[in-house]
Amino acid sequence: MPRASGFKPIGLRDYVRLHSKSNPDVEEADLTLRLRETLEKYKAGTRCSCGAPIWVIGSAEVGNMCFKCITGSIDSSEDYEIDEACDKAMF
Ligand SMILES: [Zn+2]
Predict the structure, then answer these.
(1) Please, what sign has the CA dihedral across residues 9, 22, 67, 59?
(2) Separation of first and last alpha carbons in the chain
(3) pLDDT at residue 2 above 50?
(4) How far is the CA of 67 from the centre of ligand 1 (A)?
(5) Span from the CA of 25 to the centroid of ligand 1 (angstroms)
(6) DSSP 18-68
(7) Three-state secondary structure call for residue 84
(8) How far is ligand 1, taken at its centre, from the CA of residue 53, in Å?
(9) Is 0.70 topped by the overall pTM?
(10) Quick one: average pLDDT of 27-45?
(11) How far is CA 91 from the centre of its chain?
(12) Greatest Cα-to-Cα distance within the chain, rounded to the nearest angstrom
């Protein structure tokens, strides 16, 4: 079933593993904690300053912002989002 957000859903732990493979400097425990905290904010209804729901994976790095404001792109089909946050309608 296509999702409104167009992201590639990924489990939090799978993403941490994937990310740390290409970014060996990243502390897995630290990244996990940041993602969990950001996911909680997402679930609590935190939004980007533009009004869109936040992109958890990007927001864990740069603060509470949506995909469009972080990347400048509206095509998220090649980007991951934590599966629990893929229920958002983005645009
Ligand atoms: Zn935004």
Answers:
(1) positive
(2) 18
(3) no
(4) 7
(5) 28
(6) HHHHH-TTS-HHHHHHHHHHHHHHHHTT-B-TTSSBP-HHHHHHHSS--HH
(7) helix
(8) 8
(9) yes
(10) 97
(11) 15
(12) 36
CA of 61 relative to ligand 1 center, distance in Å: 15
**Quick one: pLDDT band at residue 28, thresholds 50, 70, 90?**
very high
Q: How many angstroms does the Cα of residue 70 sit away from the middle of ligand 1?
A: 7
- Label residue 89 by pLDDT band (50, 70, 90): low
Amino acid at 84: E
Classify burial at 26, counting beta carbons within 10 Å of its beta carbon; exposed 0-12, middle 13-18, buried 19 or more.
middle
What's the gap in Å between 80 CA and the centre of ligand 1? 17
- Which is nearest to 44 in space by CA: 34, 30, 54? 54
- Tell me, in angstroms, the distance from the centre of ligand 1 to residue 54's CA: 7
27 CA from centroid of ligand 1 (Å): 27
